[in-house]
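Minutes, structural biology subgroup

Action item carried over from last meeting: produce the C-alpha cell record for Transposase (Belnapia rosea). EB confirmed the sequence was re-checked against the source entry. Recorded below for completeness.
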Amino acid sequence: MRLPAASSLYAGFRFPAEVISHAVWVYFRFPLSLRMVEEMLAARGIVVSHETVRQWALKFGQSSPTGSDEDCPVSETNGTSTRSQSRSLGRSTGSGVP
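Output recorded by EB:
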C-alpha cells in the first residue's frame, strides 16, 4: 500500500506542512505543554493557538510516517521517581541538624 503524499495530508490547512510537522514534532519530542509550543511558534512569528497545536497533535502525531516505533525508546522504570529515591538515601551527619 502506498503512503499518501505529504501535501495531501496537510491539504486544506491554513499553515504549511513544515510548520505543522515542526509543531507536532516539538510537542512530542520534548516535554513541553501546548502553550509552550504556541509561544515557541509565536517567537518565530507564527500566530497559532494552543488548541490548534492540540488538534494537529491528535491528527498528525498518532503514528510515525514509517509506521515503526524505533524512534521511541521504551522506558524500563516502574514509574517511581529517582529523585525521591536519591533523597531518601542521604546520610545523617549526626549533628542533629536536619
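Discussion: Residues 41 and 52 are 12 Å apart (CA to CA).
Next step: EB to file the record with the rest of the batch.
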